[in-house]
Amino acid sequence: MVKEKKTKQKFEPTIVAFCCNWCSYAGADLAGTSRFEYPPNIRIIRVMCTGRIDPTLVFETLRMGADGVLIAGCHPGDCHYQKGNFMMEKRFSYIKKAADDMGVEPERVRLEWVSASEGGKFTALVREMTEQIEQLGPNPMIQKASATIDAFKSQRLRWVMGRSQIKVDIEEVKYRQTVDSIMHDEIERHAITRALKEKGPLTVQELAEISGLQPSRIVRHILALRKNGVVNEAGEKDRQLLYQLI
Amino acid sequence: MKEEPRVGVFICHCGINIGGVVNVPEVTEYAKSLQNVKHAENNLYTCSEAGLAAIKEAIKKHKLNRVVVASCTPRTHEPLFRSACEEAGVNRYLFEMANIREHCSWVHAHEPKEATKKAKDIVRMAVAKAALLEPQTEPEVDVKDASLVIGAGIAGMTAALSMANQGFKVHLIEKEKELGGLTQRLYKLYPTLADSSEILEPLIKSVEANRNIELMTSTTLKDVTGYIGNFDAVLTGPEGDKKVNVGTIIVASGSSNYTPPQGLYQYGIYDHVITQIELDEMLSKGKIGHPKRIVMIQCVGARKGEIRPSDLEAFPKSDTADLLRKILKARKEEGWPYLSKICCMDAKKNAILVKEKSPKTDVVILFGDLRVYKEYEDFYRKARDLEVRFIRHIEEVSPEITKTSEGELQVATFDAMSGLEVKFPADWVVLSTPLIPNKDEVMLARMLKIPIGTDGFLMEAHLKLRPVDTNVDGVFIAGTVSGPKDVSESIISGEAAAARASILMGNKKVRTEAITAVVDEELCIGCGLCEEICPYGAPKVEEGKSKILEILCRGCGSCSAECPRQAITMRHFGDHQLLAQVKALLTPQA
Amino acid sequence: MQKAVMVIGAGIDGIQASMDLANKGFKVYLVEKSPSIGGRMAQLDKTFPTMDCSMCILAPKMIECSHHPTVKLLTYSEVKEVKGSPGNFKVKILKKPRYVDEAKCTGCGICAQSCPAEAPNEFDENIGVRKAVYMPFPQAIPRIMVIDKNGCVECGLCDKVCPAKAVNREQKPEEIQLDVGAIVVATGFDMFDPSIIPQYGYKRYKNVITAMELERLLCASGPTGGHLIRPSDGKIPRHIAFIQCVGSRDRREWINHSYCSSICCKYAVKDAVLIKEHEPSALVTIFYIDMRAFGKGFQEFVNRAKSEFGIEFIRSNPGEITEDQKTSNPIISFEDPVTRTVHNVAFDLVVLCPALIPTQGVEKLAKTLGVELDNYGFVKLKDSVKNPLDTTVPGIFACGYCVGPKTGDIPDSITQGSATAARVSNILSDKEAS
């Protein structure tokens, strides 16, 4: 009985699109002017340039329940501000990695290039994305999103991501590996600090249960957080030390 | 003390453009229920005098301090509504638009229920952002009363003269040694059949004589920095580099005439297969004589399969070739994806010229579709009166050129009326080829940040409303650089661009971007990332903190997205404002 | 005749030798390969049998030494070449680049706070992390940061935030020439890596650690602030076992440390007592072969450990350690010395006491100096009875653990340090050398 009801009620995704004023927003306008038609699931938010889009915006949008996020900018070389879209492209590789690790399907978070004259492309893109996400179902929202958002707000991660926009002075592969490991560390550490903030002092065991991380990994993070002056000991519980935010 | 937002929402029917799909009254009632909304109404045409008056009245009556207009795209009417707000005492930047036409009613025309729901969402998002908007001031900058015109063809020279005659200093650069551009190669111009030199010579003389015009031939643009009113351009010529400072720039670098690759219609293989422009040259030198028959083939290069990406060898490995390849690939067709518009007239013109000189010559024009517009219909009739034969052939099948055993050219094609094959022996076969983008165009586009359309020509700011403006404030386009035009159209566009530029220069001042970056110095650690990222050199780290020179900031927001401390906010597009829109959409009740 | 001496190695023995020599009026070049002086003693929590805080008694000596007007510290440096003869050695030193300008750096640590790159902390035996730009330990001398280029991602943030503008990423190694009359070798020891003994599961099982790792966990300035937690899950261990003679007294060819390392029994008992002091409810067992508790006050210490602290001593050398996968508890398999039956007992934490071996690089150094090494790789003495301070090269002396276990403890090292100072001044005086 329940199954029947499910198939009758079609899932209608909500897709948020960040479109840049000069290219993709204009492309979407052109789709309208040309009277193309596409599914009504998309909501456009205007920005001046895709370079504007902070990774935390993408994850906040997912965390708040969007089933998909589309970032649409100018084709490489056409950015009104010269290289905003290039920076977005590089930034997107980090966003994508974090999203993949969170278990967010690649069809849900996309970066595409749509020029002001590509009303048709915009239309096709919206149709494709809506259909794909319809198939996938609602966004399986993951608590890790909050930790991911915090990680992408951290100076440590933002600095190494930002540096890669300018110049990488060591071997690219090694740099990227370092950024990825910093990303993981920061996401996991923020999950820990978040748990401590919300629930007060916790043991390694409790943190492992809440975060789903291996206890030995929690220990590793606790030692680093301790060294950085973020946590310290707050007594004992069940033959374990309690840790608290300083 | 932050004032409490009092938002007014004005929903436009736009005739039936919106109202015919979206239930405007329903959306209006909905708007009234939103937080911070003190007034909501709907109008038939909000952009009309009545509509604007209604906004101003409502502002006064309900003491509104934020305005949302739900109608079309901000890219056209935002300035209009902003001015209305300003006139009623509300800062221009306390205004937000909700696009429920291009992004809603026009694309969901058959789903009125969904469209109405979507319109409500869009309005809700706009109201949420509006509540967080803050007044901004547009800094005023001086506009230097000098202009740079790139290209001394018909359009460029016209523009230069127009501005010079108003007293502005003009730097006119031309990459060739001679002035006149593509028009030089033309013999006579339609529809008057005036000699091209009749137009060119006086123009060139005036340009050379005008004291306000600094003419530099064999000179190209090497680099340009700056912003509206204050561009610094580096010109490079035979005597080295030269720096000029101008307030406006007009791009009139023209286009090229497509030369068919060898083999297409036997061009380059058989001697007597030439292009229209080559025919022009022969006519001007009186070299055509009295042939028995001339066959003209239209739309050469514009038909499927006639231009393959490999044919772009005509353009050596360059940005243009890459761009054109991209266009061809994207269109999944072969052949130029636009109408070159002038080739039909060109053919007729030359046909008439031939007939006038040599009435006995049979001139046949093979066409797929005849594109004759404006008053040129009369010109077409004139050609017919002179017994120029117009034969419509089946478009899908290209005419074939062969040589008979006697060495005579023969054109074979299928007549569209009868479906029968027809063969013409011909002395000359003339190919009408389109105008295509110039080799230098891509480089100029990149330097000036002007986007290129899918047809390969420079894109104007708005197809309908702003045909000589570009997206870059202070930079205008004229002539065939933005698409095929005939001589009169080029002249007109040159004048138009000059007019737009001189308004700016005449006002001496212009208000620039208010959407700029702001640094919270308490958070800033002076890491300098913003300084290294910014394409405009706006942020500079001084005494351990980033200071942004607002005049240079174009408001792209990259610094804000990269700042490790999230210490930079973009005015009018801050994270909190964007997030408010997301939140209003996804978790309205929160 | 140069009235200058080079001391290689700035552990407590090298520091003592330097100070005595300096106080005798010699110019001393104290060369140390790591970025800070202090050696192993800096890593310890407390010293046996007095249970003094190690750093508290070491730090004043470090400061005194570094401030002495005739002592020149050459840290982060290595000896590259030695030529000449007693009284006239010509030495080439290679000073490795810290990528920090020593004259400008104030050791404020702002760079380390901002540095995004983390790496395992060698001083903490890789338990905790440090940044790519770091101070080796809080009391390090000289108080100058150092950049580890392997971990560094060259992001340049340290440079931007340093108030003294002391970062110099282009710094090159510096070659320094020294003229000295005598050389003292005091290169100390390393700990044998027990992972070569696969039966003990070191590195495979998270809760099998070495004694030095335990020291760092117990140390108040260590990665856990002195709280003993076990690596796999942060639990406070209750059942702790020590296994003595891991690698020592081992005749197996591929291990080749058939000697007794002298100090492991002592420090094991010390650590056992420390653990009991931290955690009175803990149950500590020491698996030993012989309890080598020699030295002043030591047997009394062992007796106290048994009676007062309830530490259990089992004379048995365990054959194998396995792991309870669910709890990560290591399980020791050993033969009961009395009943001769094999028992498998699970512990929360197992501490291996590995053999102490010659430091890495001693072989190369020996070649550079021309001194001989014994068959264990320690610096060979001219005559272990008659000339227990001379190496096989005249003018080059040795003290501390680099010559082998001896008694091996701190007082012993200090004594040897002073003794070599005497030997040096002997040969460098106008009187004839003996």
Could you give the distance between the termini of chain A?
Answer: 53 Å
Strand order of the largest sheet of chain A: 2-1-3-4
**Main β-sheet of chain C: number of strands, strand sense, barrel status?**
5 strands, parallel
- Structure class of chain C: alpha/beta
Strand proportion of chain C? 25-35%
Structural class of chain A: alpha/beta
Spatial strand sequence of the major β-sheet of chain C = 5-2-1-13-26
Shape of chain A: elongated
Counting DSSP H or I runs of 4 or more residues, the number of helices of chain A is 10
- Averaged pLDDT of chain C: 91
Bulk shape of chain C: globular
In whole angstroms, the N-to-C terminal distance of chain C is 16 Å
Radius of gyration of chain A: 21 Å
Rounded average pLDDT of chain A: 91
- Please name the two chains that share the biggest interface, counting residues whose Cβ lies under 8 Å from a Cβ on the partner chain: A-B, 64 and 61 residues
The major pleated sheet of chain A works out as: 4 strands, parallel
Description of the structure:
- The complex is a heterotrimer of chains A (246), B (590) and C (434).
- Chain A is of the alpha/beta class and 246 residues long.
- Chain A contains ten helices and seven strands.
- In chain A, strands 2-1-3-4 form a four-stranded parallel sheet, sandwiched between helices. A three-stranded antiparallel sheet of chain A has the order 5-7-6.
- The radius of gyration of chain A is 21 Å and the shape is elongated.
- Chain A starts with a helix and ends with a strand.
- Chain B has 590 residues and is an alpha/beta fold.
- Mean pLDDT of chain B is 87; it is low at 313-317 and 330-334.
- In chain C, 22% of the residues lie in helices and 27% in strands.
- Chain C contains nine helices and 26 strands.
- Chain C has a five-stranded parallel sheet with strand order 5-2-1-13-26, covered by helices on one side.
- Chains in contact: A-B, A-C, B-C.
Give a quick precis of the structure:
The complex is a heterotrimer of chains A (246), B (590) and C (434). Chain A is α/β, with parallel strands linked by helices and 246 residues long. Helices cover 54% and strands 15% of the residues of chain A.
